[in-house]
Amino acid sequence: MALRINGQLFTDDDIYDEMEKLKAAAQSGPNPPNCCEQDDEYMGYARDTIIARALLRKEADRMDVTVPPDKVDESLEQLKEQHGGEEWFYMTFNTSKESEGEFKEQLADDLRVQAAMDQLVGDIHEPTDDEVEAYYHEHLDDFMAPQQVRARHILKDLDHGADREQAFNDLHEARKRALAGEDFATLSDELSDKSGEGGDLGYFGRGELVEEFEAVIFSMEPGEISPVFLTQFGYHVAKLEDRKAREPYPLDDIRDDIRKYMVDEQRNERSRAVVEELKSKATIEEIDEDGDDADAVAAGDVEETTT
In whole angstroms, what is the distance from residue 58 CA to residue 268 CA? Predict the structure, then answer.
């Protein structure tokens, strides 16, 4: 359904384009969307974003908010840097050098909207050290370091036409020697195709190494030596040296991160309140693309998607 916000029409194409922009921006984040599976969710985000932007743009006009051109140029360069340079920036935002002027116009509009929001939100309380510490202890489960293990391995690489049977047999023999009491680190330096530092991989958590390797290692107990197993890198024999249980990150290591999170949380809550207040005074209509069967609704009755 298209939208008409205080008389201004936003078509299905406008909403779809906004959804694609949001998905493109999310691709560089920690939880990128999975192709089309989250389209309904991102379509909801797009509709909410369009409504909020339209209402804030009107407020920016009322407040006579302006953004200097050099601020727009600075923000554009920051975006390019954040996205790995011009080439990746153009790919991410589906734009080009030739279309950069249009992008800057949209960026200037976004900066005006953000400046209006900042004024409407007002000053944000900076949490004290005591408040940060209290938040840390109240939300301790959110600040737990993942379980980690430390392992060594002996690897036989299968690249360049290596004899698979010979590689397997070599590692089977190495495993027998380790089980008989020979030092695993010494065996790794002697036999591994990736020799050095006794095959020590250090501490790592789930998701840091290939899935097949982790499946074996995380099933073992400290001191245990694995059977010979295969990954994309070749045949391995591994020894689990140590396992660290989940534990909280030290407060001093993440104090600044918690403070920033608390500030952002305050800003987001106030931003939502600002938008809800503007929506309560607006007329928002969900309409068919051709404009027929318009269904005007009070702003507060528009279905929301939690972001």
Answer: 20
Q: Please report, as a single letter, which amino acid is at residue 164.
A: R
290-307: per-residue pLDDT in tens?
645 444 433 334 433 333
Q: Is the dihedral angle over the CA atoms 34, 38, 41, 42 positive or is it negative?
A: positive
Q: Among candidates 135, 136, 133, which has minimal Cα distance to 144?
A: 136
Q: Please tell me the distance from the alpha carbon of residue 164 to that of residue 118, in angstroms, as a whole number.
A: 63
Domain at 147-245: CATH architecture: Roll (3.10)
Give residue-wise pLDDT tens across range 31-61: 666 666 677 888 899 999 999 999 999 999 9
- The predicted-structure confidence for 252-299, as pLDDT tens digits, reads as follows 999 999 999 999 999 999 999 999 999 999 999 988 866 454 444 333
In angstroms, the CA 162 to CA 164 distance is: 6
The amino acid that residue 52 corresponds to is A
User: Residue 253 is which amino acid?
Assistant: D
The count of C-alpha atoms lying within 13 angstroms of the C-alpha of 215, restricted to the half-sphere facing its C-beta, is: 8
Q: Which fold is adopted by the domain 2-127+251-301? A: Triger factor/SurA peptide-binding fold (1.10.4030)
Per-domain boundaries in the chain: 2-127+251-301, 147-245
Strand partners, 238: 153
pTM: 0.64
